[in-house]
Design a protein that fits this description.
Blueprint lengths: L25 E2 L9 H12 L2 E6 L3 E6 L2 H9 L4 E2 L18 H4 L10 H16 L3 H19 L4 E3 L1 H5 L2 H9 L7 H12 L5 H21 L5 H6 L7 H32 L1 H4 L9 H11 L6 E6 L3 E3 L2 E3 L4 E4 L1 H5 L33 H19 L4 E2 L21 E3 L8
Parallel strand pairs: 1-2, 3-9
Antiparallel strand pairs: 2-3, 4-6, 5-11, 6-9, 7-8, 10-11
Helix pairs in contact: 5-7, 5-15, 7-11, 8-9, 9-11, 11-13, 11-15
């Protein structure tokens, strides 16, 4: 997670000017995003090809990369399509309170690092995560999932987003970080609020950052078997400040995408007849549902951004130095040249999607595998504990968050036979 506003000296503090963009640019904000993003991506591809001129909030121009091949090309060439947002030539047009500033305002985190510095930071994160025993992780996930289900199992109804999917990933991460269980409820509330971009988001993020700073200081004095301690003792010799900001990145990346992966998978299994018998041990597995969601309803729909380091060509478009590119991960997954047909046998194991991005700046290994352990445990434990769970509303009444960036439900109301927790 980056700070909500850029630090002093960031180009965003320059006076705002009227933005300009390529002719025919399409607004990627407003009411049209919440209904059917796949349709939007199809229309953009039909009208503009694999790279479309678009306008972000406030009519800020950018290039939207839709084609699978083109997303692969951009994410494979870190020198030409770089991550340091200070390369953006449009900073004079960007107000300091721009809604997307948390994603583009430069911070000295692994997210904006390039070259050897990025490899140093991301390598330390990968090593710290590799030390997590995945069998132990599965046990942690099952225990925490059981605890959440215990809280609502006796009522016969629940909102599986608010009561379950949005809570479990944070609980797992805080345990992997070695945070005192007594502090977890408040931390979970603060992290959730900081990701909502509401009026209290900045203050909530500041509280989370302060807690991470205290945690890192504590672990420097008293190392333990947890992720912060491994980062502090890593041969990359990360400074305390680097560990703090990179822990915030890891925590934010683990929360909303994994929560929506869980929620989107549960929605699929509760609404699609191909998975109906899975609720009683039938023909399609939870793993297949998880993979299908990554292709067709991936939690991270789009990713901002990359900045061209020099003039170039991409998908038949002339890209100028300093141009902003938005990675259309969901659009690439639905590119008709590569998207699997999940009604056909033998396509369930195709994992060549872009849901975790690609290349050096992709979600660092083994983070995707850890997220999959959390998501799979969440779905399997719920279906095991509540085998007759069903939607409490018609599937057509489920509401998606109106976001260009994330794909997740506002709520997932269900009902089931009350099942009391064993004593």
């Amino acid at each position: 997670m980056t700070e909500q506003f850029p630090p002093p000296g960031c180009p965003a503090h320059a006076p705002a000017a009227a933005p300009s963009g390529p002719s025919g640019a399409v607004r990627l904000y407003g009411d049209g995003l919440s209904g059917d993003p796949a349709r939007l991506y199809r229309e953009l591809r039909r009208e503009h090809g694999p790279v479309a001129p678009v306008l972000l909030d406030g009519d800020i121009p950018a290039w939207f990369v839709l084609g699978y091949r083109e997303v692969h090309q951009v994410t494979s060439n870190n020198e030409l399509f770089a991550r340091d947002s200070r390369r953006w030539h449009a900073w004079e047009s960007i107000p300091a309170d721009w809604s997307l500033m948390p994603f583009v305002g430069y911070q000295p985190s692994v997210m904006f690092a390039e070259g050897a510095e990025h490899r140093r930071r991301s390598g330390a994160i990968s090593d710290a995560l590799l030390a997590i025993d995945q069998f132990e992780l599965r046990q942690i996930c099952e225990r925490l999932a059981d605890g959440l289900i215990d809280a609502f199992a006796g009522s016969g109804e629940a909102d599986l987003m608010a009561d379950y999917a949005l809570r479990l990933p944070l609980l797992v991460v805080t345990e992997l970080f070695g945070i005192d269980p007594l502090e977890v409820p408040q931390l979970v509330r603060d992290i959730s609020e900081s990701l909502d971009e509401g009026p209290g988001a900045i203050e909530a993020h500041q509280r989370v950052a302060a807690r991470m700073a205290r945690l890192v200081h504590e672990r420097k004095e008293r190392p333990a078997a947890d992720v912060p301690s491994r980062l502090l003792t890593h041969h990359a010799k990360l400074a305390e400040e680097e560990v703090v900001i990179d822990l915030l990145v890891v925590m934010a990346a683990a929360q909303q995408p994994t929560a929506n992966w869980i929620g989107n998978t549960l929605r699929l299994m509760l609404t699609d007849d191909r998975f109906a018998v899975s609720l009683s041990g039938g023909r399609r597995s939870v793993g297949q549902a998880l993979n299908e969601v990554l292709w067709q309803d991936t939690p991270t729909q789009n990713y901002i951004g990359r900045w061209a380091s020099r003039d170039t060509q991409l998908g038949g478009r002339r890209i100028r130095a300093g141009d902003l590119l938005v990675m259309g991960l969901a659009a690439a997954n639905n590119d008709p040249q590569v998207s699997p047909d999940f009604t056909t046998a033998g396509t369930d194991s195709n994992q060549a999607h872009m849901s975790f991005s690609h290349g050096e700046h992709a979600c660092p290994y083994p983070a995707p595998e850890i997220a999959e352990v959390i998501a799979q445990a969440a779905v399997e434990v719920l279906l095991d504990r509540l085998p007759d769970v069903m939607l409490a509303v018609p599937a057509a009444d489920l509401v998606w968050h109106p976001s260009l960036w994330m794909r997740g439900l506002t709520a997932l109301p269900v009902e089931f036979t009350p099942a009391y927790a064993p004593r």
